[in-house]
Each structure stands twice: as C-alpha cells, then as structure tokens.
Amino acid sequence: MNQTIQWNDWEAFCCVVEQGTFTAAAEQLDCPKSRVSAAVARLETAIGAKLLERTTRRMRLTDAGKAVYRDVAPLFARLREIRQETLAREERVQGVLRIATPYEFGAQQLGGVICRTLAAHPALDVAVEITQGLVDPIRDGFDVAFVIVDADLPDSGTVARRIYHVERGLFAAPSLADSLPAQLRPEDLANMPTLTTPGDTVWEFTRDGETVSVPIRPRMQTFNAELRLQGALAGLGIARLSVNYCEAEIAQGRLVRVLPDFPLPPLRVFALLPDRRLQPRKVRVFMEAIESMMVSELGPEAGLEGIEPGEWAREGAGPEDDAQAEGSGLAEGEARPAG
User: Average pLDDT in the 163-178 region?
Assistant: First the structure.
C-alpha cells in the first residue's frame, strides 16, 4: 500500500543539517523546536535508519544521514528556486491574455484598452475571440469573458464584475415616426414592424413603477446593432438601440425617438473571471485598465466591483447594482464599431 510521504519531515531534517542545531532550524522554519525534533524522529522511523547522533553538546550525521542529505537537499534547494522564479514570473505582465467579447463592445470599448495595455507591457500577448451569449471562462479557457445582459445574469459559478450599463430606447426614421398614432402607447407596437435581436418576442416598458410587456412582430432579427440601425434608417421598422449608439443619427434628424416616456431596461455589461483569488498579474493589470477607462468616461463612481455568484440580487438595486442570477437575459453589444 502506498503511504503519503511527509515531505515537511524531509525538509525539517535538511534544515537541521544546514542550520547546525534544532533551535536554529526551528527559527528558520518558524515553528517550535519540539515540532522539528518530532519531524526528524518520524523521518527516521519511516526510513528505518538513524540520521543524526545527538548528545547534549553536539550533533553529527550518521552515514545514512549523510546519504539522505546528499540526495535530498539539492531537491529542496531547487524547489525554493522554482518558487522564487514563479513568484517573479507572476509579478511580470507576460504570457497570453485570452479575452472573449461581443463584437461591438470589443471593437469600441475594449479596443483602446487592449492597445494601451499591449504598448505598456511588451512581454504580453492578447488573443480576442468574438463571442455571443453567455461564456464560461473556466470551461472555455478565457482569462476574462465580457457578457452583455438586458435582464438577469445567470449563475455560472464564476466571479462577475460589473462594468457599466447602457441606456436604450426605441428609434425610427422620421417617415415611419410620422405615421405613428399621435398618442402612441406601448401596446400599439404589437401591430407594428420592429427590428430586434434573435429570440426577442416581448418588449418591456416601465413607467411610474409599473411594467408593461408587449408582444412584438420582428421584421429583422440580428445581434448586430449596425444592421438594426441601417434597417431603422431605411424606414423598415422601429429598432431598439442604445442611445449613445445612434446619437449622431438623432442629432442629424435621421432618427427620432419613439415612446421616450417609457424607459426600457438598460443593457448591463459584466466581466466574468474564473476566480477572484490569485488572479494572474496580466489579468489584474487589464482589469485595472478597464476600470481606468470607465472612470475617465463615466466619472469616479464608475469603479468596478467584484460579485460572488449568488449575490447578484439586491433589493433596491440601482442601475449599476447587481443583476439577479436567474434566467438568461443575454443581449447584444451595442457599442459603435470602430470605423
């Protein structure tokens, strides 16, 4: 039967030899002298040989002790070297940082951060994979996975860090907007053409604390916000888009907002990470760069906050608070693509 090797006992023996006394070895190992003595005694019993001859005044190695120390001491020395090398390596920003992100969010929000991070750390490489929907960073091998949700964040067993939320609205070309009823209600959208994301069959509106759910009739379904924007500009239907995504078209009079008095649930952007503890230096540096970006764009209150799974729901949560871990609620990124 295989027995567990008590490597601490072997290390204690080597330390006694190197320090010359049990007292000095105990100080080096930061433990009581009695524990060091017991460790050496256990080792002698385990290998069936006396390793040290001890008197009240002196201590010397036996032949067996010399052989054991000669063979084992270099191994512990190498382990200490490996430990120091590992610690130094983790303090350097190097290796490959693997990121998953929706297209629009990656192109607009992450592009500048990634480029600045690479410029600051020449030993770092970045691999970005365009994804849609929920990504499991542990299962899929990512260091950071960005997801965008419009309802509740499912409990994936990973650590989530809120980044920010995006205000959304309904928009249409002036020609289509002019044909809408003067006193338009959310319920009226059930018989109107809409431009939305795949699987979207109901739009929710909130006013005076009440939520109204309206079934919709999509003419176009796509995760690509640019296609929905082009469809709206062509007068093909009412599109649900983030407000900042189409602000230029609004300013130019090419789009008008529909039902502005009925707010839509915002998009929430989360970064999913495999673990909060002992994150590699490359991940910490990148997330710090993300936080700096958000603070510069949204102000000092926009800092990131870690969220443990199962703690995503809070009563009275504000727009930057946690999404409840229930349902999918996955949505598209709607940041304007670069170029």
Answer: 89
Whether residue 182 is found in the same domain as residue 39:
no
> For residue 61, what is the enclosing H or E element?
strand 59-61
245 backbone dihedrals φ, ψ, rounded to 5°: -70, -35
* DSSP string of 24-53, one letter each residue: HHHHHHTS-HHHHHHHHHHHHHHHTS--EE
**pLDDT(328) > 50:** no
- For 116, the token pair is 């600045």
Domains: count for the chain: 3
Domain assignment of residue 289, given as a range: 95-166+266-307
Question: Any residues with CB less than 8 A from the CB of 61 and at least 6 apart, and which?
Answer: 17, 51, 52, 53, 69
Residues 114-129 pLDDT 10s: 999 999 999 999 999 9
Measured CA distances, 291 to 38, 55, 64, 86, 117 (Å): 51, 63, 59, 27, 13
Which residues are registered as beta bridge partners of 171? Answer: 239, 257
* Domain co-membership, 147 together with 276: yes
Q: Provide the Cα torsion 292, 294, 296, 297; round to 10°.
A: 160
Rounded to an integer, the average pLDDT of 150-175 is 80
Strands of 159-166's sheet, edge to edge? 124-130, 95-101, 144-149, 267-273, 159-166, 305-307
Which pLDDT score is estimated for 154?
A: 65
Note whether 103 and 129 are same-domain residues: yes
> Which of the pair, 276 or 334, is modelled with greater confidence?
276
The angle at the Cα of 98, spanning 286 to 129, to the nearest 5 degrees, equals: 115
What six digits make up the tokens of 93? 């920003």
- Which of helix, strand or coil describes residue 67? helix
Strand partners, 214: 203
Cα 102 from chain centroid (whole Å): 14
With CA atoms as reference, report the closest residue to 141 among 154, 153, 127, 155.
127
The whole-angstrom distance between residue 58's C-alpha and the CA centroid of its chain comes to 58
Beta bridge partners of 242: 168
Cα 126–chain centre separation = 15
Domain assignment present for residue 336? The answer is no
Neighbours of 40 (CB within 10 A): 22
